[in-house]
Protein: Rhodopsin domain-containing protein
Organism: Podospora australis
Amino acid sequence: MTAVTEKYPGWADENRSHWVMIPSIIFTVVCPLLFGLRLWARKTTTGIDMGDWIGVAALVFALITNFLFFGMVRHGFGKHFDAIPYEDSKPALFLWWFGQATYKVSLHLTKVSLLLLYMRIFSHVVWFRRSAVALIVFLVAYMIASSIAGLAQCTPVQLSWDKKVTGKCVDLYVLFNCNGIVSMVTDVIVLVLPFPLIYGLNLPRAQKFALVPVFGLGTIIVVASTLRVYSLITGTTRDSDRTYDILGTLWTIIEYNLALICASLPSVRVLLVKALPKYFRSSAARSEGKSGRSGASHVRTWPSKVAMSGDGWSRVGNDGVHMSNLRKGRKGETDSQEVILEQVKVVKQPDRSDEEEDLDIEMGGIKKTIRYDVEFESIRKSHG
């Protein structure tokens, strides 16, 4: 073991490993829990699809990256590089080198999973679907290219973790900053892409507030990505201590783990509604019911008289709606319902009267409904 010469008293004992350990431990517990709830909610409602399985892959790579950080700290990551013995610096830098690829895979797969969620919700909007597909293609291509570039940063490759090997590396300062800027820009695009559709919906304010937790957290991810780029540009140089100047690493951990949490929130709410209906009852749905009774423009009502005969229901009067039309909207129709951020299931609360009935939204989304006021009378056949 090589003796360490201190540059000033206490220099060799300086350690920032807690910047890595604390968030990694927290997210290693929280992310699998929330994502497991997401899968459970999806399985019991709309079913698990490709976006969920891609999210599972993103979670696996996120956990791998978190455990790589645990191993790095064990070998001195967080201390000054010159204060770490050579026997520890090699495995620490090897794990750091490999983690660059697993981090990129996790982050980009999470974005793809979120875009697939958006595509399922707004599948009827052609420009949105095409934009999302184009962005997914770019994200996958960039994920592969940047991962290969990160792993092949040095020639020979061993130079990435063994500083006694002779060779040449690319400019890591430029490489990391470029990756950070691209990640930040794609974060912003994924965040704002559905905004025009949501802003254009004719919904009560309370319903739009239901989107705040999801998109608010997305804003935090953008902030984390921006701070990561800022810390890389202003807080590091080509001569920076890569095992001690780790503020950018802290924001990296926050970014890819928070992205997973953001992708899980829309589906998790359904379980909270089922478990604690009194506390998580949708204020948006109640607002919709109240505003519908007051004649708000987003709820349409068609009073109608209908008659019941042996052949079923039929309409009486000129201003009604035939009962055969009271079924699930056909493909392409948006007047009957509009679902945001997840498919929803509407349930009637058994303890409410018919006049005061409100609809609860179970799936963490927003649903625009049409209420029909129906009067009916029995048709009696006359006997001659």
In short: The chain has two domains: 11-270, 283-378. The first helix runs from residue 18 to 44. The chain has a mean pLDDT of 75.
